[in-house]
Structure formats: C-alpha cells, structure tokens
Amino acid sequence: MIPEYSHFSLVLALCLSVLLAVLPLYGALRGDRQLMLTARSLATGQFVFALVSFIGLTWSFAVDDFSVITVAQNSNSLLPMHFKLSAVWGNHEGSILLWILIHASWTLAVAMFSRQLPVDILARVLSIMGMIGVGFILFSLLTSNPFERLFPNVPQDGNDLNPLLQDIGLIIHPPLLYIGYVGFSVAFAFAIAALSTGQLDSAWARWTRPWTNVAWSFLTLGIALGSWWAYYELGWGGWWFWDPVENASFMPWLAGTALIHSLAVTEKRGVFKGWTVLLAITTFSLSLLGTFLVRSGVLTSVHAFASDPERGFFILMFLCAVIGGSLTLYALRVPTVKSQVRFSYLSREFLLLLNNVVLVVAMLTVLLGTLFPLLMDALGQGRYSVGPPYFNTLFVPLMALLFALMGLGPRARWKSSTKQQLFKPLLSAAVACTVVALLSPFMLPGEYHLAVALGILLSAWITVTAFMHLHTAIYSKSESRLKLQRIRASHIGMLLGHVGLAITALGVVLTSHYSSEQDLRMQLGDSVTTGVNGQYTISYVNDGEERVDNYLAQYVLFELSKDGKVLNTLRPEKRRYLAQQNVMTEAAIDAGLSRDVYVALGEKLDADAWAVRVHYKAFVRLIWLGALLMGAGGIVAVLDKRYRRVRSARSAMSPTFDGTAQSAG
Amino acid sequence: MQRLKLFLPLLIFALLAALLFGRLGEDPEYLPSALIDKAMPEFALPELYEPTRIVTRDDLLGEPGLLNVWASWCFACRVEHPFLTKIAREYGVPLYGLNYKNETDEAQNWLQEFGNPYRLHIVDRSGRLGIDLGVAGAPETFVFDHLGRIRHRHIGIVDEKVWAETLEPLLQQLRSEQ
Amino acid sequence: MHPQRKQRLQIIVFVLIAVAIAAGLLLYALRENINLFYPPADIAAGKVAVGQQIRAGGMVREGSVERSEQNLQVRFVVTDYAADLVVNYDGILPDMFAENAGVVVAGKLTENGEFEASEVLAKHDENYMPPEVAEALEQSGGSSEAEY
Predict the structure, then answer these.
(1) Would you kindly state where each structural domain of chain C is located, as residue ranges?
(2) For chain B, which terminal residue's Cβ has fewer other Cβ atoms within 10 angstroms, N or C?
(3) Helix (H, G, I), strand (E, B) or coil at B83
C-alpha cells in the first residue's frame, strides 16, 4: 500500500499548492491579512506531503517492490543499496518527483527566511511559487505518475538501472542541478511579484540577491559535477561535449551569471530595473526550457533517458503559460519612466552592462547552436548537427572579451571614474601580467603556444585585479594601513567567484594545449609512453575477469611509471551488466593537480589484445577546482552582514505587516 | 511606442514556442511505415516451438490480424503482454508474434513465465524481417488485412486506449472488407 | 542633443555594433561547422562532394567488419539496403557497435569513393535507433526486397 499512500500524499501536495497559488494572492489583492498569512502554513504543508511522497517512492526502490513500474524499469535486486536509492531519480518519473520536492523545499525556505518582507509581497511571491508547484505536480500526476503499478504480471526482477547512471557522480549531480534550476524560480517569483505591485526598487533587488546567489552556486556545482562525471564515466576523456543537455544547463547558468551582476547594480544604484526583471524571467524560463528539451524527446542525446511527446506537450503548454504570461506582464507593467540616475562610460554600471551584454550574447549563441538542427528540420532543410567547433569558435572571443572587462569592472567606481583613477593603478598590473604570461609558456614543457600565453594573461589579469579590489576595499586611508575587520563576506564571495573562473579558464587553456591522446592495440608486455615529453610509461602487466555485484568485469592491469619508477597500477574495465547485458567502459585514472593519466579499454581485438585509449590530460583538475571555488563564492557572498542587518532592522520597526493597506489601496 | 518594444521578448518566445510546437507534432521517433497499404514483405523464417517448420507470409493470410514485434529483452513488451493476452483470448483476435533479435531459449522462458496468447511465432533472430518492415524497436504492432496488406503500424505499447481508439475500429472495418 | 539622449544613443550604437560582430562570427561558425546527414543511397548517387564534412548512417552489414592485425584500423560496410558505403576508421569503436546494428559515422568522402570516418556513433541500446538511420532505412525500404 505504500505506493498508494505516496500517490495520495502527492495529490494532497497538489491540493495545498493550488490553495497556495490562490489564497495568499487573493488576500494580497483584497488586502486581507489573514488570507495572506495562510501562505506560510500552506508552504509547509506542501513540503511535508511532497516529502512523504518522495520517501514513499524511495521505500519502494529500497525494498525492490517491482509491482511499481518505475521500480521495475529502473532497478534490480542485484543493484547495491546506494544505487537503488539513487535510482529513484535516475529515471524520468522519479526525477520529476525530486524536482517537486526541491521546489517545495525552496518554497518553504522562502516562507521561513523572509520574515522581514512586507507581508503582501511575501504572499505574492509564495503564490507564484505555488503556481509553479501546481504545474509540476500536475505534470507528474497526469503524465509521469511514479507510483503506477504493474498488475497482475509482477515481474520477478527489475530491468536494472542504466549502467551509465550507476555511479557516485550521478547520485549527487541531478539533485545539485535541480536545486540550481528550481532555485531560480525564487528570483522569478520575486520579479513577478514586484512587477505586479509595481514596486521595482532597491529593496526588491536586495531581497532577491541571496536567493539568486545560492541557486547560481548550486547550478555551478551541478554543472561542474556533470562535467566531471562525463569525463570519467563516458570513457571518452572529454570534459565538455556541447551536448544539447549540457547546453540546457549552461544557458540558465549564463543568464543567471548576468542576473547576479545586474541585481548588484539595481540594488546599489537603482538602475537597470527593467533589464534585471527581464533577466530573472529569462533565467527561470531557460531552466524550464532545459527541462522541456530534455524531457520531451525533441532532442535525442546521451542524457535523454526519457522522452515522450505527450509529456513534451504538457511541458510546452506549461512553458507557454509561465513564460508567455510573465513576458506579457513584463511588457505591460515594467516602468518605462527612465531613472534619473546618470552614469558615464567609465562607471561600474556601464562595465557591468557590458558584462551583461556579453553573457547574454553567449547565451544566445548556445541557444542558437542547440536549436539550429530543429530549425533546419522544421524548414525542411535536412538533418543537421552543430558540432563543438561552432561553439568553440564563438566562445573563445566572447570569453576573452568578458575576462578583459572583468578586470576593469570591480576597479571602476559607481557613477563615474576618471581615466586616471581607473587605468593608472591597472597599468602596472597589466604590464606585469603580460610579462608573466609571455614568459610562462617557456616554463611549461612542449612548444610555445601563443594561445596559452593569452589564456595565462587573462587568468592572471582577473586574479590580480580581484585582489586589488579587495585591497582597496579594506585599505584605510586615514590610518594608511589594511584593516582586516573591513573584509566583508561579499568581498570574499566576489574574490572566490572571479578567481575560480580564472582557474577554470586556465585549466581549459592548458588542458587543450598540453594534453595528448592515443588509441592503440596492446597486449601483454606492450608498453607506451605518454605525457608532453613522453615521461610517463604505461605497460600492460596483466589481465583477467571478475564478477562483482551486478556485473562481470574484464580488466587489464597497467603499470604507470615515470623515469623507471612505478607510480601506480591502473585497472580499466569493460563491464557487462547482467540484467540487460549492457557493456560499459570504466576508465582508470591516475589523478593529480598538474595532470591526469587516463586509460580506457576499447574492444577486445582478439584472444590477447585490447584496443586501448591512453590520454594525458594536463591540468584538467583545475577546471573543476575553479568551479568549486565559484560555487563557494556564491554561497559566501550570501553570508554578508548586509542581508542580516536588513532583517533585524525591519523586524524591529515592524512596519512590514502594515504594508497591506498600501498595496490594497 | 515605448511599450511596443517591450513586447519584443514575448515575440521571440512566441516564435521559439511555435518552432518547438511544430517539432513536437512530428516527434523524431515517429515513423509512418512506408509499407502502409502495401503487401507485407516476403519471408521464410522458423517457428519458435517447431524450428523445422518454416513460416511464410501465406500462413498469416485469410483473416485480418495483428503482428506483434516483441523480445524477451524488451521491457515494454512485458507491460503490454497482459493486455495482448486479453484481446487474443477474450476477443479472439488473431495475434501473431514476431520474435525480434532474440535467443530462442530466452524467448521460450519468457513465454513460459507470462503465457503465450500467440497463434504463431516467427523467429527473426537477425532482425532481417524487422528491417524490411521498418521496425525501429520493440514493441511494435502491425495490423494486416486478409490479403496480407499492412494497414497500420503502431509503435510502442498496445493498451486499452490504443485498442479502443485505433486497433479495434480498424479490425472491424477490415473484417467488413473481407 | 541632450547629454542623456546622446549617451543612450551611443550605448545603442555600441550594442548594435557588438551584435553585428557577434552575428557575423555566428554565421561564419555555423557555415563552417555544421554537417548534414546523408544515407548511403544519396552518397552513391553522387550528392556529396569529395572532402565535404558530413554524417552518414545505416546498418553495419553482416560479415563486413575487417580489422587490421597490427593496429586499430577497421573497415566496414554501412548499408541502407539500397546502396553500400565502405567506411574506414582508425580508432576505438563504441561499446554498442555491432554487425547488423544501426550506426552513424562522421567524416568525409575520399577520392576512391570510400568514407574516412573521424567519429563512429552507435545506438545506445536495442530499443533505440538514431532517428536519421531509421528514416534512411525507411526511405530505401521499398528497394530492399531487390536483394532476394
């Protein structure tokens, strides 16, 4: 009966989210304080029932209840327990349920941590979150019910979880990604609430910022984890494929990055309000579009583990309602009165505007590249595919421009800076970075690449200017010394974010120039050298077969040595999963900060020879290390005193609860 | 005038939605069979339980019926199986199986476990007949008439809805044509 | 002109220039880096120029896979049952590559009418066939009987 109870619990969550979508909003329109205050308890109720439902499905997976179709299709009695639990979201139905749970959690978090908000604003925000909840719960119940049973022929055993998904990376990647995606619904709800009341002001931007930062951090970590997973699990040694599903998560990231910067300007200077609102809508819309592209079967890709036109139709309708509705509201309600605030070209406002333009253009190129095959097919022009070279051609110059601006932005003052103020201190930094950048490729083994020098230049530039910014912020002129107590969390957050990006960029540049790859035939006793100067030797020392849990592994043992000294034994595998007889490649990696040595097996060529893929990946870890720093930066920035101070000030004055009368009038 | 340009994002989205919507209509997995209203391709393949017996197209003629493409490795086949059993046993629909790219013993074990409502099983181990029929995967179900012409192709699971809305009316019509 | 107006105008001009540059780059990148799918029948019919980057696909003909003894060179025939295409590839084939299974190859046609693949993609499981391959087979479906 557990699946039936869980199903019922999801229906109850739906009822509560319908109430949440209607009551507080109605209350806000009528000025009825009691109705507005229902929002908090409704949000709690929605969360509790979504949680019960999710635990119910997890239970069915844990106890191998194969009468539930989702369990039968995606689990197997041989599966180890931790994979049974992660199989809950390793499939379409379960991942939508996870989405619902995460959305309910965000809604609850907004209800809990926004006590300083005027009650009518909070009521509107939570109502909008409720509407989104209604959409997703309906989607689950109508098209992707995870609790459907398979009677009377209950299978003896399940179909098994796709072996690609039987991995630690996939246990944590989807939740992180979804926390990011869904988190942007908070920024979206704030934007719509502000549009509907017409109160687009600094206070609105300040309320939105912490939520957006947290969502962005999780999305950053989710994308990085996905990239890491693809690197070691797909067996191709690549870390980014410009696959439509990767693009689907990258587009909201680009728009979200633009949003967090634009929110800063709106909070501090009260300008770009309309633009910021549009970005908030766009970011969440792209999150929804990503879901649509992945779930509808419009694109087929490695990741699209479920696709169904009926589901696609539902999500598209939902998309039209949410995006179409919000953009209409935007067009009708966004204030057209120009703000009186003026700023010059050398102001921080203007530089942040440029940053936004570059990020949005980058987002649009990804969107075009992803949808181009659909467009050509719709126009009857044949079946095209757009490859990584397209994206790389466009991204390299765009990112170079962005990085150059990133150095200027934090140094510029609000409103206007003179050339003196802006460029003079930076000149020496620029010269120093250039010298270091031009010289450092000589230190690296291999030939001199100008592109590497340029990459180092930009990374160094970002890093140095980020630290200079911190220095300026904490330097006390009156005492002519650094005052460490002036360091604020937001400074550290920005520093981490920018330096993180610099490290990622450095990793990308270095790994694409100093890595090497060879595919070759090897048998017992063979060895091959790899590395920039061929300093690493990999020798085939043994092979064998082993039965583990739910698969049969054929493996080869390689000895990795450098200058005659054995460093490590690598064991790449070819796994045959027993339930479906799927074959999977399991790469073996000797990881290090400056390089990975990556060995994967191809096919068995004859009785004693294997096709072997050997990669030398220079500095590839920097890519994910940088992303980790960026994610941390977003979170640290939220800890800034500013957001807490506002809260205590507001609750002390307590005019928040009187806000109702105004907006009703 | 100021307002009008604010509708630009909405317009862009409308175009995008139209594209996605059009694309959804022609789902990439949907493949209308090139064989509709044409004769079923010729074949001569063994029967599952009598490997020496060679089944040909002529064995299926005389009465409209269903040809169901299935395999023991196909999970969805397990889902549609109870319903196929029902229509074969209770409504007497002539149901033929095309055992697609399957090991014979695995297929037999599968039928042992779930029951065998099929009149005949054509064993297509290489998938050759499947290719001639344009089969993209299992399960698929073809409706043919008494002359052996293919009249409809259904991709995916046969359930109540598919039966009531498509297959049953079509079979009725084919019987009346007979 | 009012200074604020002037500033707005300058911003607009700047944005337009940036967009124009981006659009130019975009078209360039698109033209260079997209490739169209062709079934073997179209290639046999001479619709593809030698050296043009394309993708092709169909079924791997049974018994056609030949491997080199020394290295990873492999040669196989991709067919849509209307025409055959000989494919040469140097590298590791994907896990799901098999005879009588659907495959998509990316690369270019050489002078001798064979295909030099830089990438080989196989379907992910039995239930899935690349849509292009399914369509290609579908279109040539009528002529496949000619083989008997």
Answers:
(1) 1-34, 37-147
(2) N
(3) helix
Q: Which residues on C lie below 8 Å from A235 (Cβ)? A: 95
Superfamily name and number for C37-147: Nucleic acid-binding proteins (2.40.50.140)
Least CB-CB distance to B31: which of C100, C135, C148? C135
| CA distances, A35 to each of A17, A48, A109, A199, A665 (Å) | 14, 21, 20, 21, 17
What is residue A11's DSSP assignment? H
- Contact with chain C for residue A585, Cβ under 8 A: yes
Q: Quote the ipTM score.
A: 0.78
**Exposed e or buried b for every residue in A613-623, given b needs 16+ CB within 10 A?**
bbbbbbbbbbb
pLDDT tens digits, one per residue of A475-494: 877 877 887 788 888 889 99
Q: List Cβ neighbours of C3 (8 Å cut-off, separation of 6 or more).
A: none
Distance to chain B for A515, nearest Cα, Å: 37
Q: Which CATH number, 3.40.30.10, 3.90.1150.10, 3.40.50.2300, 3.90.226.10, labels domain B32-177? A: 3.40.30.10
CA distance A167 to A640: 36
B96 bridge partner residues: B67, B120
How far is A613 from chain B, CA to nearest CA, in Å? Answer: 31
Task: Kindly state the tokens that stand for B114.
Answer: 């779930």
B137 vs C59, C129, C138: nearest CB:
C129
Sole residue written with tokens 């466009």: A394
Give residue C109's identity as a one-letter amino acid code.
Answer: L
Pairing of strands B54-56, B44-46: antiparallel
Q: How confident is the model at residue A62 (pLDDT cuts 50, 70, 90)?
A: very high
When CB atoms are compared, the residue of B6, B13, B82 closest to A334 is B6
